Amino acid sequence: MTNHLIIGQYVPGHSVIHRLDPRAKLLIVFAYVLIVFLANNAVTYALLSLFAFAFAALSRISFSFIARGLKPILWVVLFTLLLHLFMTKEGDVICQIGPLSVYEGGIKQGAFISLRFLLLVWMTTMLTLTTTPIEVTDGVESLLGPLKKMRVPVHELALMMAISLRFIPTLMEETEKIMKAQAARGVDFSGGRFSERMKAIVSLLVPLFISSFKRADELATAMEARGYRGGEGRTKFRQLAWKPVDTVFLAAVALLFALLCLLRS
Amino acid sequence: MDIVFEKVEHVYNARSPLARRALYDVNVAIRSGAYVAVVGHTGSGKSTLLQHLNGLLQPTSGAVKIGEETITSHKRPNQLKPLRKKVGVVFQFPEHQLFEETVEKDICFGPLNFGVPEDEAKRKARELIKLVGLSEDVLVRSPFDLSGGQMRRVAIAGVLALEPEVLVLDEPTAGLDPRGRKEMMEMFYRLHREKQLTTVLVTHSMEDAARYADEIIVMHEGTVWGHGTPEEIFRDADKLTAIGLSVPETVKLKQQLEKRFGVVIPSPCLTLEQTAEAIEQLFVKGERP
Amino acid sequence: MAEPILSIEGVSFRYPNQSDYAVQNVSFTAERGEWLAIVGHNGSGKSTIARMLIGLLRPERGAIRLFGRLLNDATVWEVRRRVGLVFQNPDNQFVGATVEDDIAFALENNGIPRLEMVERIREAIRQVHMEPFLHYEPHRLSGGQKQRVAIAGILALRPDMIILDEATSMLDPRGREEVLETVRRLNRQQRITVLSITHDLEEAAKADRLIVMNKGEVMAEGTPEQIFRLGSKLERIGLDLPFAVKMGSRLRERGIPLRIGYFTTEELVEELWTLYSKK
């Protein structure tokens, strides 16, 4: 199951996109997600798609790989498309299927909305494919930095996020181990009656929670032993460096924004 | 139950860029009632091999025959459940699988999954708790109030409650102190004899392999490197050392003595007693070389 | 004699809601550059001592002195900088997303400037021979490698003392040897004091001095030679004698007049050869 889902997976590389400052990437994707909603005609959607394609091309990650990652959401896209196809009643009737009639507006609307959805997922996937989770964390911490003045525990939140990410593979391994141990005791995780399924899930979750609490406790002790006492007086090993290329990419998004405003109908 | 591996191969994530071959060309037979130790480095394929014994993994090619059952890549996973009752597996750190409110419920969990009536399962729990060296009043307690060593014994009782014919043990003494380790190994040996089990022990301890096993299977880089009695396996101590595995301390001593004394010691020197006797012989025979 | 780097005087400790003492009236000292092993069965109180030494637990009675100063709230952070603790479970002490991040963690906590950090990380990783793994995530490392990263994280702080709290008990033989070899080298070359807490007497045999714990109290203290003379007394408290010691006593029972004491297997062979040639 996890093999097909590439959202959230990092693909190592040295492309210009990989090397962008994570803050720049976060801002680009965030801005893109907002301005996608400005598009309302063929030209503006073409512009947005062009930008997304260019971004992917520069990352040197193969289109087929990205496309494969988008597969799981294809059903959602298809559903949206069909919904609009049959529900929107604008413009001329193009054809008639049984009691349902397809209007010109429906085709347009359906195509645009599906494309919008695809582009949103496409760009956010690009972010995670080219940025390690820890870089994302650093970027978020840095961007949220000003909130510290408002007593938002930014450092703690970022550390929490970093540690959770670090322990995901460990927990996956643990889950697999416990599932195997319970399967050896006759638990069937793939089927059975509802009550059996519930029991199976309990036999997995209880040990998983217990070991996670134990881990958390030991980790906290180890952190204290290694001199951790909150964000005060702490230096940072990972440092972000804003480069001219980051500014250039942000400028490109600004340009995209301007063009969208001009060309939308 | 006889166990036979025929040309078994296992590839993780087959047909994907992450494919990794963990086992290949494994041909090995374990006869019913034998105590077999499987040794090898971490990553040698030991634990993949072990998971084929009760169908947790299926070979990607070849076949595993366990008693009447034959497991191949085609077998549907839901046909494997009956096998899991016959082959009990004690995983590493088995205490991590406990989850019920009471020790009794946890021991009964396995049997109930296999359709054993409740009072029968409870009767078994009472019998087994004593067998693993705990007292009956532990049954009503929460497993999480027990010490680490006690929790492990409860988990083992939970596997034994399936009344398996084959008992597979994966590093069952990891993390225990010397006394705990010895008590546990002795307990498994006793069970092996009393219940006429077929026992498969995966271990890093060459001492345990030499002490308890009738046969040793040496795994190396995904396939069977050697298979024989402890005597046969440890006879070629140098070959084992060459693939980075150690031999029991007694065998090391024998080797060094042979070199220093310029003699051949006929005894296999697998236990302390055997070795002491062999050295005594050396002194009694007496003549200087 | 120089002032000891560590001294514990009459320390007792009880866990909350427990009537029995986990550690009772324990006293001992450690010299600079020494390898001191604390041995005992699981639950003998030895890990509790480790935790008290860096202020994770507070003794109910008694005093702990490190580097000539009393351990208290004012000195605890300095102590945690100078004394590194390697825990049992390799996974649950790995904080960073990658090897270098993890080594950096303690440096960050101590406010070391970034440029110096980079330098120290490079030096520490070299000392544990893990250079090729600098950018690896923890789940791609073996247990032994993770423990070596933990040691590197301590070395980066340029410590005076390393405490191994059952640090090898979850490792395979290869991992165990890697870790012990690394610590042995640091002990010898850099005179870092080592306190190794273990139930493995084979491992403890290589220490300069041993402290045997039983039920929270110190049962014996001395060189490996002196300790292993206790023989079956050690077995009775749940420990296992080193192989050569067990073999030696079996041989004496059979009338081979070996001298009493502690040997390695090599020494045992030599002793036997001497006896044999004298005949």
UniProtKB/TrEMBL annotation, chain A:
The chain crosses the membrane at residues 29-58, 70-87, 107-129, 247-263. Keywords: Cell membrane, Membrane, Transmembrane, Transmembrane helix, Transport. It is found in: Cell membrane. It is a multi-pass membrane protein. One of its GO terms (molecular function) is transmembrane transporter activity. InterPro entries: ABC/ECF_trnsptr_transmembrane (IPR003339), EcfT (IPR024919). CDD domains: EcfT (cd16914). GO terms for cellular component: plasma membrane. Pfam families: CbiQ. Forms a stable energy-coupling factor (ECF) transporter complex composed of 2 membrane-embedded substrate-binding proteins (S component), 2 ATP-binding proteins (A component) and 2 transmembrane proteins (T component). Transmembrane (T) component of an energy-coupling factor (ECF) ABC-transporter complex. Unlike classic ABC transporters this ECF transporter provides the energy necessary to transport a number of different substrates. Belongs to the energy-coupling factor EcfT family. This is Energy-coupling factor transporter transmembrane protein EcfT. The gene is ecfT.
Automatic annotation (TrEMBL), chain B:
SMART domains: AAA. InterPro entries: AAA+_ATPase, ABC_transporter-like_ATP-bd, ABC_transporter-like_CS, ABC_transpr_CbiO/EcfA_su, ECF_ABC_transporter_ATP-bd, EcfA2, P-loop_NTPase. Keywords: ATP-binding, Cell membrane, Membrane, Nucleotide-binding, Translocase, Transport. Its main location: membrane. It is found in: Cell membrane. It is a peripheral membrane protein. Its EC number is 7.-.-.-. Signal peptide: none annotated. GO terms for cellular component: ATP-binding cassette (ABC) transporter complex. Pfam families: ABC_tran. It is an enzyme of class 7 (translocase). GO terms for molecular function: ATP binding; ATP hydrolysis activity; ATPase-coupled transmembrane transporter activity; cobalt ion transmembrane transporter activity. SUPFAM superfamilies: P-loop containing nucleoside triphosphate hydrolases. Gene3D superfamilies: P-loop containing nucleotide triphosphate hydrolases (3.40.50.300). Belongs to the ABC transporter superfamily. Energy-coupling factor EcfA family. Forms a stable energy-coupling factor (ECF) transporter complex composed of 2 membrane-embedded substrate-binding proteins (S component), 2 ATP-binding proteins (A component) and 2 transmembrane proteins (T component). ATP-binding (A) component of a common energy-coupling factor (ECF) ABC-transporter complex. PANTHER family: ENERGY-COUPLING FACTOR TRANSPORTER ATP-BINDING PROTEIN ECFA2, HEAVY METAL TRANSPORTER. This is Energy-coupling factor transporter ATP-binding protein EcfA2.
TrEMBL record, chain C:
It is a peripheral membrane protein. Transmembrane segments: none annotated. Belongs to the ABC transporter superfamily. It holds the Pfam family ABC_tran. Keywords: ATP-binding, Cell membrane, Membrane, Nucleotide-binding, Translocase, Transport. PANTHER family: ENERGY-COUPLING FACTOR TRANSPORTER ATP-BINDING PROTEIN ECFA1 (PTHR43553:SF24), HEAVY METAL TRANSPORTER (PTHR43553). One of its GO terms (molecular function) is ATPase-coupled transmembrane transporter activity. This is Energy-coupling factor transporter ATPase. GO terms for cellular component: ATP-binding cassette (ABC) transporter complex. The keyword Secreted does not apply. It is found in: Cell membrane.
